[in-house]
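Can't attach files on this board, so I'm pasting raw text. These are the components:
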Amino acid sequence: MIDEHFAGGTSPIHALDPRYRLAACLLLSLVAALARTPQTPLLILGAGLVLTVLSGVSAKLVLRRAAAVNLFIIFLWLFLPVSTPGMPLWQGLGLTVTREGVALAGLVTLKANAVFLCVLSLMGTIPAPALGRALTALGAPAKFSFLFVFTYRYLHVIAEEYGRLVTAARLRGFVPATDGRTYRTYAALVAMVLVRSYDRSQRVYQAMLLRGFTGVFPCLDRFAAGRRDVLFLGCVVALAAGAVWIEWLAGRGNV
Amino acid sequence: MHISEGVLSGPVLAGGWALAAVGTTLGLKRLDYDRLMTVAMLSAAFFVASLIHVPIGPVSAHLILNGLLGAILGLAAFPAICVALLLQAVLFQYGGLIVLGANTFDMAFPAVLCSLVFGPWLRRTGTVRSVGAFCCGFFAVLLAALLTATALALSGEAFMTTAWAIFLAHLPIMVVEGVITAMAVGFLAKVRPELLSIRLAE
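---
Top answer:
Structure tokens for the assembled complex are below.
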């Protein structure tokens, strides 16, 4: 149900310090998301593509994820070209497709995919426990990281538990349809998952207390940033600065 | 109900982050470590529940259940939803870090508001409880759809039609969410009534 194909690996991207990867992802996403001209996200998209290739994840999987992410973008393409006022490109069926509308939809598509590739190659390649610690290192509250790491830890356990309940329902002849019985069954399934999660959380916390938990996790796997990490982040900062500069030039109509 | 990255304008993204940060900080402040574990586990349970696709006529929609989440978690719904959305970004690359704030606020604020308004009804019995639970599920999705549409509409006039389309598409989902929330609360009241009154962060 939930699998992570990107987190494990031996690529140059996986070897980078998670804190640096997270910071780089944040910076590139920010520049791409705030862009107003197509040149800037195009540059980040190129960088994201290079990073994705470097991270060595399967192309088939990347395409499948990209398809899911672009569903919302396709939805936007249905409306934006005809709902944006501007110069008409095509008229028919009582609708007017405008040049500005197509440009806006194109810009959104570029931005969304640029951020998608950065998140996939830089954040998707960090195992969740390391990401939790990287978040704390970058200033997120410790409790937030605790929440993140444990939600992740029990995601799979609870998904399995839900799977068992669904199997049990199916064995008893449950076929989903649009009727009261289906909704009642799903409601009971959800509520049962909640009850079991609640009970499990009590047991787990008691077990943690028994082992002397005081709110801190002593961790053996320490982050150690090397020259390569600094060089990588330097390149990313330079790229982001370049993208901002292009944005500024394009904004003045020089490109 | 996610807005993907690259759609919203700078001020809307910044506003979303500011509001989400306030909510998440408040939620975390009211939680100590012996409750955090429960919130983490329930957040995982809601993540799993959001992967359930329920048939609505010829199509199917996935459950959101932010109303039920708010009813159980109260203010802790903010950090719980923020974490669940962050995990969706990490595991499925739905959305990114920049739009996370707006998406968190869009879903968590209605959850908290509904728990404040309808929460007391859930601790009663019979019809009042069912009606309260239905309202919780119904209005949490209604408000979330409204906030999502507003975020889009504020990002530019061109998004107005899309905003309307998103709101209308959520109308049948509101009813289904209301019904399922009412039934789930009925089930919880029978099986584990204390879950409806733990009020993790109030």
